């Protein structure tokens, strides 16, 4: 997602030179030289060392922040960059810090936060083309993500409806088969009457045979 993001992280040096004596200023410069050589972990170490003398210096917070950004430690970078904002009176520098925080959030796929900080950057510097571009990119991606989620939700709903319909059809088919089997095990009214008539006829025939088989008895005479 971030391949097209415009990244401009600038280390702050000049105003720091005007404020402090040689030791932290020299250490800060050493950190910047290492940063420009893309030796970000070593640069971070030098900026941290300078902070031992000037722990509240906003320039150092900023430089620590952009070093952490380059090391892909975006959450920690945000913490350091945010510390530098209240103490920097230069509007353009503050705008750049907001922009850098926006980039951190963008890298973390937190589009809403990145949009907020790009907007803050543009309030301070409406002519920042990089911030404009990244803001438009973040807004576009947010819209795409929203549409994608909506499409996925609709597809999921259709799938659930399809599955429910399939279950209902399966249940209906099962009930039909059970009813069919029940009917096959039953006899019709006509068949029942026919069987009953046959049984009655058979019983009558049996009774006739029994009557025919009774032994004959003569009329008893008088015993004179």
List the helices and strands and how they pair.
Elements: H1 14-19, H2 22-36, H3 40-53, H4 58-70, H5 74-84, H6 91-107, H7 111-124, H8 129-185, H9 189-212
Helix pairs in contact: 2-3, 3-4, 4-5, 5-6, 6-7, 7-8
Query: Terminal Cα separation, in Å?
Result: 137 Å
SS content category: mainly alpha
Helix content: over 70%
Spell out the CATH superfamily of one domain. Tetratricopeptide repeat domain
Number of helices: 9
How many strands in all? 0
Describe the biggest sheet?
none
Sheet-strand content, in percent, reads under 5%
SSE order, one letter for each helix or strand: HHHHHHHHH
CATH first level of one domain: Mainly Alpha
Q: For the residues shown, what is the average pLDDT?
A: 81
What name is given to the CATH topology of one domain? Serine Threonine Protein Phosphatase 5, Tetratricopeptide repeat
Q: Radius of gyration, rounded?
A: 47 Å
Low-confidence stretches: 14-19, 219-224
Second rung of CATH, namely the architecture of one domain:
Alpha Horseshoe
What is the global morphology?
Answer: rod-shaped
In short:
With 224 residues, this protein is mainly α. The chain contains nine helices and no strands. Among the domains are: 9-88, Alpha Horseshoe (Serine Threonine Protein Phosphatase 5, Tetratricopeptide repeat), CATH 1.25.40; 91-151, Tetratricopeptide repeat domain (Serine Threonine Protein Phosphatase 5, Tetratricopeptide repeat, Alpha Horseshoe).
